[in-house]
Structures are given as structure tokens and as C-alpha cells.
Amino acid sequence: MNIIASTLDWTGHLLGVAGLLISLWGFKRTRKHGYVLIGFALLVSIVISLVLPSVNRIRAHRYFEEHPAAAVDRELAEQILEAQQQAREDILIAHNKPTDLDGELTIKIRVPVYQLLLVLGLWLLVKNEKPNQRFHSIATPVNDPGKAQAAHSDA
């Protein structure tokens, strides 16, 4: 079950990468700069979601090294939390209620619906766009029957 939960945590990042690739494909295909803007926004969101937790941990560690009083306050807060949990268990025991989950496990599963809809919509937009003929190679077939017939008569 833990593998499924960790896989779902990474699904948002993978959808962001897929959206970035689709936006680059859309820009290459149509040369519309809106696809670059969407790709940049997806890139920023991916970088922030991957880098920011590590940066926050490093900042917190440095803060507690520089401010020992804050570390004491943190330890005091942990002791208060432990005392609250113990008091809760004592009250539950006094009222003959179970104090633990008896082996039950609760996992929050976050499905990245927003990212999924964004990437799906982006893919549908790019798929239905007509390629910009001006930026494609010379080998792209021409849809004008007169030019195609003239090309065959020259050969």
C-alpha cells in the first residue's frame, strides 16, 4: 500500500513533466508563444514542488542552530504534545473507549485531478492545432492540387 501512495505522490510531478513536453511539442508545431508560457509555468511548479521542501528543511536546521532558545521552545512544544496525547489516552481509558486504532491504517490519497485536467486539455489543444506550414521542412506535402500537378508534370 505504501508503494501505491508514494507513486500517487509522484503522479503530479510526472503529469507536470508530461505537460511541459506537450507544451514544447505545441510550440514546435504551431510556433504560438502561449505554449512556451504554459510550459514555463509548469516548469516553475515542478521545480518549486521538488526543491522547496529541501530548502525549508535546511533553513529550519540553520535557524535552530543559530537560535538555541528556539530549539528549547521546540522541545517544550514536543513535550506538551506528548502530554496532551497521554491525557487523551487517560480520558479514553476512564470511559472504556479504545485508545488506539487496533491495527487500522488511514492513508490520505491525493489524486492530482487539476494537473490531469490541465495536461489533458493542453494535449487536446495541441492535437487539434494545424501545424504552421511556414516553420516546417520543405518535405511537408503541399495541399494545393495545382502545385502538386505542376510538380508531377515537371518530372
How many structural domains can be distinguished in the coordinates?
A: 1
User: How is the biggest beta sheet arranged?
Assistant: none
Class of secondary structure makeup:
mainly alpha
Count of separate DSSP helical elements: 5
Strand content: under 5%
Write a concise synopsis of the structure shown.
The chain is 75% helix and 0% strand. The protein is mainly alpha-helical.
Plain-language structure description:
With 155 residues, the protein is mainly alpha-helical. The chain has one domain. 75% of the residues lie in helices and 0% in strands. The protein contains five helices and no strands. The protein has helices spanning 2-30, 33-66, 68-94, 113-128, 145-154. Helix 1 (2-30) crosses helix 2. It is elongated, with a radius of gyration of 28 Å. The model has no long low-confidence stretch (mean pLDDT 81).
Task: Give me the secondary-structure topology.
Elements (H helix, E strand, L loop, with lengths): L1 H29 L2 H34 L1 H27 L18 H16 L16 H10 L1
Label this structure with key terms:
mainly alpha; 155 residues; 75% helix
